[in-house]
Amino acid sequence: MRSENTPFRGGPLDGRVLPVLLGPTGHPPKWYEVPVPAHDGRPAVRYAYRREPAGYSKRLGLQRGWVYAYAPGGRERREIRWPWSKPRTGTAGPDAAGADGAPKE
Fold first, then answer.
1. Rounded CA separation 49/12 (Å)
2. Model confidence over 59-91: pLDDT tens digits?
3. Do 49 and 15 form a contact (C-beta atoms < 8 A)?
4. In angstroms, what is the C-alpha Rg of the chain?
5. Residue, of 32 and 78, whose pLDDT is higher
6. Contacts 24+ apart (CB under 8 A), 42-46
7. How confident is the model at residue 2 (pLDDT cuts 50, 70, 90)?
8. Does the pTM of the predicted model rise above 0.85?
9. What secondary structure does DSSP assign to 64-104, as a single string?
10. Cβ of 103: how many Cβ atoms within 10 Å?
11. CA 27 → CA 14, 16, 53, 88, distances in Å?
12. For residue 54, which of 24, 21, 22, 28 has the smallest C-alpha distance?
C-alpha cells in the first residue's frame, strides 16, 4: 500500500509529519483519529483530525496536497439521508395533517 507524508496542524500533533496510508483513490482518509491510552485512572482520549487542502498553486489553481487540521469537538457524525427514509421525529410528515390539511387531533 502507498503512503504519503502528511503534516498535522493544531492539537497535540502540531507540526509533525506522519506517513498516512492512502485509499484506493490515492487520497488519505477524511478523518484521522489518534487514540491515547489512559494513565493514572483517567479515561482514554481520541484526538480527531480533519483532512483539508494544503493549498493551491498560483498559476493553474491545482491543489498541492493535504493537511490534517485538529478538530477539538471530535469527529462529526453524519446520517445518510435516503429519499425513501422516514422523516426525523419532530418534523411534520405526511401523517401530521389530515386529508383537508388540518392537524390531526
1. 10
2. 999 999 999 999 998 887 777 788 887 776 655
3. no
4. 22
5. 32
6. 46/74
7. very high
8. no
9. --EEEEEETT-PPP-----TTSPPPTTS--GGGB-TTSPBP
10. 8
11. 21, 19, 11, 33
12. 28
